[in-house]
TrEMBL record:
Ranges in a coiled coil: none
Domain ATP-grasp per the UniProt entry, residue ranges: 116-319
Gene3D superfamilies, A to Z: 3.40.50.20, ATP-grasp fold, B domain (3.30.470.20)
Lineage of origin: Bacteria, Bacillati, Actinomycetota, Actinomycetes, Pseudonocardiales
Protein name: Biotin carboxylase
Organism, as annotated: Saccharothrix longispora
Nucleotide-binding in keyword set: yes
SUPFAM superfamilies per the UniProt record, alphabetical: Glutathione synthetase ATP-binding domain-like
InterPro entries, per the entry: ATP-dep_AA_Ligase, ATP-grasp, BL00235/CARNS1_N, LAL_C2
Keywords: ATP-binding, Ligase, Nucleotide-binding
Entry keyword annotation includes Heme: no
Amino acid sequence: MSDPVVLFLNLRRTHLEHGAAVEAAHRLGFGVALIADTVPAGLPERVVRVVHKVDTYDLAAVDRAVDAVAAEHDVRGVVTWSDRDVETVSRIAERLGLPAPSVGAARIARNKYLMREALAGHPHTIPRFARITTWDELAKAASDIGYPSVLKPTSASGSKGIFVVRSEDELRPAFDELMRYTRPEVDKVFGDNPNELIFEEFLVGTEHSVEGFVVGGEVVVAGITDKETTEPFRLELAHTFPSSLPPAVQDAARGLAATVVSAIGLDDCTFHLECMAAPDGTVKLVEVAARVGGDFITSHLVGLATGVPFAENVIRVATGSAPVLGTAGPLFSGVRKIMADKAGVVSSVDGVVDALAVPGVRHVAVERSAGASVALPPQDYMSGTLGAVIAVGDSADAVRATLARAVDAVTPRIS
């Protein structure tokens, strides 16, 4: 049998992100066996030993690819880098006897309604909520919960389909749009629960995420990220690591993570928990994912600030080892996205060289090249992100200033 490999089920969308994952496996002495819908160019063949291109929503096709990999390679772990494959990873791990959450726990982590139901015994950790599949259910929930509130899909990812509803006048348009959007023919991610929404209390405060691992029932927190989002659709705009929250609030966020992980039953996995910190210092759950955080948080920011690449710990946990934590300082890191201000077709993204010249900038990623079509929410939640800038500095404020200067240097031209 060949050298040990870790099975990757799909990759992150940018070469910076998936490159960090592949290189982490290589540094730890593993090859990669990739099963994916699309295979990016430029993957190093000496590390990515085998590739199976299949429709990963087709579970039978995935099973055949897994069997083929396991027949020829020593598979030590299985991991995914986004929400859509979390349940499939647990299925694969169960078949091969590898570390991962149970299929039941993975299912809860993929559904915001089931997630909140699992925490019903800890009402202080969650907003008031209701599951919605019809207009009548929504009208009743709005009467009970009131405004402002949030209406969103139970199983989307990447901030897709989040509507802040501030009055009764905004309720029906948000519902109609989400009924149109949350169908498998629009996005396959809704195949298991089409037109299932959650309506919940609007949480006031600042947004954060807890990045960590759970191994043998023990929660290990690598750090907390401070987040900025857009209005009104709550797209993630910027992140800074480590958090500048007061120590007591950070302790509350870590406590929330332990409670949530235990209630859902997550184990032997990476987690990314999003939460809101209220002005009074209390922290409530937005959602938890049994996978890494995106937007370069865990591919770059944690490693830049702590000195230990987060992706290496993802591989360690997936292969049955404990994570190795770095220090919380002295560096801070951050990312800020380059966003389109209108729909159309990208003519060019100018100023990248100027942005790279700003002291502290480490990367400028351009995701939409000339000729790419761009749409804005609610028509589309992804294509309006044109790129991102990653930077480091001695303080959170210094990083934010660097990112603002670099993003201002970039001029997207959309016709």
